[in-house]
Fold these 4 entries.
Entry 1:
Amino acid sequence: MADTSCKVVIFAGGFGTRLKEETEFRPKPMIKIGGKPIIWHIMKIYSHYGYNDFIVAGGYKVEQIKEYFLNFVALNNDFTIDLASNKLELLSKNKEKMKVAIIDTGLKTMTGGRLKRLRKYIGNNTFMATYGDGVADVNINELIKFHRRHKKYATVTGVHPSSRWGELNIKENLVVDFKEKPQVKDSYINGGFFVFEPQIFNYIEADHICLEREPLQRLSEEGHLAIFKHDGFWKCMDTYKDMNELSKLWERGEAKWKIWE
């Protein structure tokens, strides 16, 4: 059973400069994959495991995120509207159970600072956090169990990055196997999908603090940072090419992060 008191923070305030073709017009979490913003895909992963209480840490073009969720029910369901009384009647059942808080955490605030600004909304409970541009088939229930079992202040999900180049398996001057951009199996990188205890806030001073630098570095030095190793699918939409790759996976029915029905 999911601990419904465990909120999920989604970092959604960055400029997304490496995806300027799209982020010039919209915040990166609002870029669509298969007709839905990638932030929706991320939320669906958590929702599948029963975690439906989200806090979106907005910044750059946050008004577009607000507009999307303000109009979410109308955009995703058939309806009849009485223009005289402004009364809306849904013609299809809204299946989403999500509760979404959208907080403007500043235009230039760093990830640690954004988290610090959310403290009053998070409270003193264990909570999760992830980036608004990465999808994976992470088992969230197993992640939470791992975190509670190790009793650390923070757990990061370690993932295998994709190689920038194709991998050649060679035998006697012949290529016996060719893999285009395979995952690197002997190393892990920060894949987001964090679990935090409230003590994390003691490691963040102000807006200029980048979560991935001083806070996580200090936690690791003090033995308070665990790693949940995820060997399955993970993909970050960092560039225009990444966006196209995710879109193609969705179109072909090969989106491994789609764990919901």
Entry 2:
Amino acid sequence: MQINTGRWTEAGLDQIIRRASGIADAGLRIAFISELFLGTGYMESTLPGDASADEEIVINLSGMDCFTFLDYVEAMRLSVSFAGFLEMVKKIRYKDSIVSYKSRNHFFTDWITSNAAFVIDASEIAGRDKTSHIVRQLNGADGDTVYIRGIAPFERRLSCIPAAGIDQAVINRLRTGDYIGIWSLQPGLDVSHVGICIKQGPAAVLRHAASRPDIRKVIDEDLYAYVGNSPGIIVIRPK
């Protein structure tokens, strides 16, 4: 296991996680934990490996991409100590806690099936008339090309709230702590980006690890404005 605790010590993180565990509401616990990462630098490719190599658990809190940001927040949300967090990363990141590249949750919607004990698919909060459903072949990029080598393309039924259907009523139904995936139009993908909904009165922000060259850190951005320029969203809600 590779561990980089970033600007925190293990003892400091243990205290933070223990304090967070005392927050009864799952969403507020996620808000508390994720706020600690604001300003943390964006860093891609922190999880090395491929299907031909042995997988190792990597914890890197000094820099993260949008998906590892969610990994760490969700694992802390479900832990009561730093030691428990290390173990929970394995459960959140890998199917059946099997540490291997092929068992890694490479797609956002893998959480719905692999982490069903902890989260639910909540995209239908918009109502049936504002929710789209599609069966998509994930991991198939184009012809014989795949995004993730060593993993065969597979079909999955996806639910999405198109951007045109996201109004104030939908924003009102979102909750603090909801995990938001930005719907992708690219063949083979479910989402192009992920973040966390944080409610601020009637409004909401998307807390996410932004890769844009002028930002490259964890920030809050107006959620309605952000998704308004996207194809839509997938919502995964913590239990």
Entry 3:
Amino acid sequence: MIKEAIATGATVEEAKEAACKELGVETFDDRIDFEIIEMQSKKVFGLFGGRPAKVKVTLKQEVSQIAEDFIKNIIRNMDLNDITVSTTVEDNVITIDIEGDDVGFIIGRRGETLDALQYLACLAVNRIDNSYKRVVINTGDYREKREKTLESLGRRLAIKAAKTGRKSSLEPMNPYERRIIHTAVQKVNGATSWSEGENMNRHVVIGPDGKSKEYGRGGRGGRRSGYGRRGSKPKQSAPAPNPDRKPLNEGGEVGLYGRIDK
């Protein structure tokens, strides 16, 4: 994002100082470009004509600063107090950490508000130019805890599916969280996972892997043929697992929501 200010002064230097003051920066800031629009001229005989100098100052902001300012503005409009925002940049990843007493309002139900803020910040940053920047918003270690919770949930339901032959449907999740579940399930022999539903209702289903040798050994899911009582119809087999038991790519390698194009 580019900010600019045009100011006048008795001299070029005074005009520069006035424009920089308007932008809230110093005249020696290396993010600034100066352009002299008009040079000052003296009055003829000290009475006629003459004009002040006019200068345009352009300030180029860092993309990370744009993301941080965007989040701060939203938090300010949410009337949340005692909130601090810090930003770090590594490669093409902008990480914004939010701390304070009211972070619960920013996280929201199961992280929905935090995810929405991250999505909007990514939109705000990547509409600037053609280079893609990933934005990650976290508060404390919420995302790390959430990831461990999802991994544990996926593994537990996968073991249950392998033992009982029954499937379980999870609540709707974003692509990133669905991928965490898929990855955890693919580490359990005898279970597989797939996604169902559309848009906001898309969710993960965990069930037995009908092609796995582990499925059908013991438990209520121990009938190799898939039949129940005599005369009943065979069970419908779950979708085949991915080749080589690789996790389904729900979220790609760029994190929550993936790349956002203009």
Entry 4:
Amino acid sequence: MDRLFIKNMVCNRCVMAVQNELDKLGVNVKHIKLGEVTLDKQLSKAERDTLDNALTNLGFELIDDRKSRIIEQIKTAVINLVHYQQDHKKHNLSDILSKELHHDYSYLSNLFSEVEGVTIEKYFIAQKIEKVKELLVYGELTLSEIANMLNYSSVAYLSNQFKKVTGLTPSHFKKIKEDKRKPLDQV
């Protein structure tokens, strides 16, 4: 059995792209998720090199060193938490990361800041703001519903954080995006 850690897997299409490359190699995948693949067998050096080249061409990267793996696992956990978990309960980021990665949060936080040059909290906020942007563009939810979905204490807090990160209010961002959208018959 072999476990591979892959950098830059951020969505279901990434999972499909990696799965496709492994299928081309004829490698049997036991389990695949964002940032991680478990194989039935150990890859040979030639297979690993071929896979590495194919993944690099797609914008991915095999991760070999322990610190890089942990960083990628932190990013994957944050992305999963913000973009893919549908439950609306309050999350304590430090507890979730410590439990999921089996490390003390202070170690994870220091390592992430050292390697990425930004705190885990700032990365988490950036991901949340990207999710807010996505939801605003879809236009199906009110700002209040978005704030509730992403566990903001209030719409005002979400708006302030959004403006701090993007330089725009959520309503101004939404207006700009709506102005750029074309009706389907004009596409």
